[in-house]
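Quick one: structure tokens for this chain, please?
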Amino acid sequence: MDFLETLFWDLREKRLPLTQELVENERVTSSLMEQVKETMGVAMADKVDGIYGEHEDIACDYFFRYGVQL
């Protein structure tokens, strides 16, 4: 693992500040995932959660590296 990757993951693990916007977003996300579980089952909800998590990791990594370039 190179230095930038280590720094990225260390920063990625930090907890976001609990702003009103973040709390509301987490509430909505949780509600939607419960609906997915009820409608499509736990396995599909886990797949959806996993793929969105991977997408977020890829996007954050891209923007982090872009910011370091600047």
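The mean pLDDT is 88.
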